[in-house]
Amino acid sequence: MTLLRWRDSLSLNVPIIDADHKRLFELLNRVRFLDLAGDEPQAIADALSELLLYTQTHFRREEKLMELGGYPGLAQHRRYHRFFTEKVAEVMARFRANPHGFRVHDFYELLANWLTDHVLGEDMKIRPYVAHLEEAQVAA
User: Fold this and answer.
1) DSSP character for 4?
2) The whole model's pTM is what?
3) N or C terminus of the chain: which is more exposed, having fewer CB within 10 Å?
4) Which domains occur in the chain, in start order?
């Protein structure tokens, strides 16, 4: 898999969410790039930590917008977010336990596919509920 590339078809046209999604793509690509460059395991671990923290920040922000917009699928959407967060945390734990035996490429492919599918599928459903909100207009 090549590095993730933002494209217009991924945009919800909701500035704060689009900015977050672009940042998540950057952070995930950074993990892959550090691996390809043969960087030290600590650099990859730091990048994974940053990805997890930003993921949590984004999910809280997105869920708050869904609450404000009265999105009826919020409970299910939260479950998808928890799954992704738990997957990143699990990967971090496996990486820290055995950094030299860990295949970053497999992790990258799994999360890149999940993130792209989630944005194109589930996140597109929230657009009508959050696009009009004042809180959604300012990019983070």
Assistant:
1) P
2) 0.90
3) N
4) 13-132 (1.20.120.50)
